[in-house]
Amino acid sequence: MMKNKWQLWVAILLLIGGVVLLSLEPIKTALVAGYRPTVTKQEAQVNQKDAAKANYNMNQVKAVTMNQVISARLHSKNVKPVGQIIAPSIGVHLPIALGVDNETLMLAAGTMRADQKMGQGNYALAGHHMINKQALFSPFYNKGTVGMKVYLTDMHKVYEYQITKRKIISPYAVSVVNNTKQKLLTLITCNDSGSKRLLLRGKLIKTTDINDAPASVVKMMHQKTNNYNVLAGY
């Protein structure tokens, strides 16, 4: 009898805990969605000292918790935007910022090496996968496909990439972010459990002046950066 009561209380506590966690998720998403910097040409100029000082250690990246998101918003001035990433077909529109420290990845896509340049070599970006399917890199995990177009801009030029590979990889497969002679885009995000990572790899197919990019891309890049409808459900 006592054992049954104990099991009942455990079940009730777990249920309450689950309800609390679910109620926090929209608040986390709202805090992420509230970060909407306007990236200008001047701000996008990569300061090599800032690039060298940024943190590129993925082993230090923490999960998207309420405390981490609040901390990121409080310290958002430390995030160094250098451009934007846009994938119109899946509604991605995010700032690109230097490094993969927790403040950066809670709010933006982060560069994974200090030496990388858009349109040259292997341009590698990391982003978080959240419960909200519209937030951060979640659309890449849920809807990213081979053949889709992804655009990067440094607010001077637009770099058009086409995804050629989608693959689940080990967290220890760090060589995928190494520089290459080929002009590539590498996008990394975690799977649902965090035990593996999703790799999307694309090749550069076109570089244009910012004003000659597709109209849908130009329209998005001049708006405040954020995902489409990031608050519109799960």
Number of helices: 7
CATH names the topology as Sortase, Chain: A
Widest sheet: strand order? 1-2-3-4-7-8-6-5
- What is the name of the CATH superfamily? Sortase
CATH class: Mainly Beta
Order of helices and strands: HHHHEEHEEHEEEEH
Total DSSP E strands: 8
Shape: globular
First-residue to last-residue Cα separation: 40 Å
Question: Mean pLDDT score, rounded?
Answer: 85
Counting structural domains, the number is 1
Helix content: 25-40%
The gyration radius over C-alpha positions equals: 19 Å
TL;DR of this structure?
By secondary structure, this protein is an alpha+beta fold. The chain has helices at residues 2-33, 41-44, 48-53, 66-74, 102-107, 138-143, 215-221; strands spanning 81-87, 92-97, 109-111, 122-126, 149-153, 157-169, 184-190, 197-209.
Summarize the structure in words:
The chain is α+β, with helices and mostly antiparallel strands and 234 residues long. It has one domain: Sortase (Sortase, Chain: A), CATH 2.40.260.10. The chain is 30% helix and 25% strand. It has seven helices and eight strands. It has helices at residues 2-33, 41-44, 48-53, 66-74, 102-107, 138-143, 215-221, and strands spanning 81-87, 92-97, 109-111, 122-126, 149-153, 157-169, 184-190, 197-209. It has an eight-stranded mixed beta barrel. The longest helix is centred in the first third of the chain and has 32 residues, at 2-33. It is globular and about 40 Å long. The N and C termini lie far apart (40 Å). Residues 7-23 have low confidence and may be disordered.
